[in-house]
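Could you help me review a protein record that somebody else here produced? What it holds is a sequence and that sequence's fold in token form. I have pasted the whole thing underneath without changing anything:
=====
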Amino acid sequence: MSDNSFFREVDEAVRHDQYKRLWDRFGVYIIVFAAVLIAGVAGYKGWSFWKERESQRAGAEFVQAMVLENESDPAKATEAFETLADDGPYGYRVLSRFQLAAAQAKAGETDNAVTAYDALATDGGVDPILQGLATLQAATLRLDKADYAEMERRLKGLIEGNTAWRFSARELLGLSAYQHKNMRTAEEQFSALLGDQGTPPNMRDRANMMLALIVSSAPAQSSSTTN
């Protein structure tokens, strides 16, 4: 036997002895860890499968509720949306709450709809984009009754935050100011829309139209003041 073979056999024996001592000391823990790992993987896969099934089920129920609302039975649609809003997966809970608020607005229950939209707008668990949409919906429903101060309070955050909803928010503020005969503020809001390069073309056209109305009303206001 060569020296190299001898030292190799000694080295293997030493390592074998070390492995045996490690196994004797920690073997049970290794087995437990492996079992927990396998159970965890199996549990995660089972949970993922269950979540996917729940999402598919909720999606089918949401679509069916939409069909009922649009075609045959709004009362049953409301019941289905209420169930999803309470027990559905997160995304469908939020969408169902929007549908319920829209149904209330359509039925003339404006105050209830505003309350529902306000709850969505202030819910920290709702995506910020959808919070902004809820803010706009509530403000739109309040446009005919709210004074300019309320509209500004509702919409100020969308404008100052430079959000994607800032264009609609400015348009609503301009309309509110015009409605309350505050032509200077209305002109400022519609001019700001024209000055924003991101303003959509259709909204830019409406802003131009409103500015034309404001300019055309100025002489009449001036004459009435003089008289």
In short: Confidence is low (pLDDT under 50) at residues 40-51, 220-227. The chain has nine helices and no strands. The CA atoms of residues 148 and 176 lie 6 Å apart.
